[in-house]
Design brief:
Blueprint lengths: L6 E5 L4 H11 L4 E5 L15 H16 L3 E10 L20 H14 L9 E11 L6 E11 L15 E3 L11 H5 L10 H17 L1
Parallel strand pairs: 1-2, 1-3
Antiparallel strand pairs: 3-4, 4-5, 5-6
Length: 212
């Protein structure tokens, strides 16, 4: 029998933007989010070869160190013309100081070298894998994906990471131009637009609603 999720949950991240997004998504449920940074937990080295493996490394480390259930997200931008890069290394393309203006320039320069200068060659998708881990027991995984096109120059100052250069299919605003509600809010009673909102919808549907 799986453990019930209630009370306090650790968001296994030190990324302020990611913590804010997950906390916003958790808010409607009876859960209190506390970040790994607030608890003084170290960030484990992300040695996995997939989003799921890295998400589990972070969630498992936070759960075991805190004695609380932990929810982690491993996400990134996968660019078709770059054979799925930067992928699980999306944060590394921003350098040690996490400069995502630099990261976006790096992606654009790689696209230019690959000859991906027209819209039909600039397809990409954001991937988010959530992992829920308890101090003991198996891990649980939830995934969300959103497809789009990369624009240049970047547009908008909202969101974080690669958001300003990502234009979701069927939309006129980049993630960087959207409000949090436009990016994450429900659409026609379905999940939100963003990869993280879609992963969280999967998490809420299969886990939170059954526990509630």
């Amino acid at each position: 029998m799986r453990p019930t999720l209630q009370g306090k949950i650790v968001v296994a991240s030190h990324n302020a933007g990611k913590i804010r997004e997950i906390a916003d998504l958790i808010a409607p449920y009876a859960l209190k989010a506390v970040s790994a940074g607030d608890l003084g937990l170290d960030e484990p080295e992300e040695t996995g070869s997939t989003f799921a493996e890295n998400a589990e490394l972070k969630a498992r480390a936070a759960a075991e160190a805190s004695g609380l259930p932990a929810l982690s997200d491993d996400s990134g931008l996968a660019v078709d013309a770059l054979d799925g890069k930067p992928g699980i290394h999306s944060a590394r393309w921003a350098g040690p100081d996490r400069d995502f203006n630099r990261a976006m320039r790096n992606v654009e320069e790689a696209l230019q070298r690959a000859g991906a200068t027209t819209e039909d060659k600039r397809g990409a998708h954001f991937v988010s894998v959530l992992c829920l881990a308890f101090p003991e027991g198996p891990s649980e995984f939830y995934e969300g994906i959103v497809d789009g096109t990369l624009v240049w120059p970047p547009r908008g100052a909202n969101g974080f990471g690669y958001d300003p250069m990502f234009l979701p299919h069927g939309e006129t605003l980049t993630f960087g131009e959207m409000t949090a509600e436009q990016k994450h809010g429900p659409r026609d009673s379905g999940p939100g637009l963003s990869h993280r909102a879609r992963a969280f919808h999967d998490f809420a549907d299969r886990r939170l609603k059954s526990d509630g």
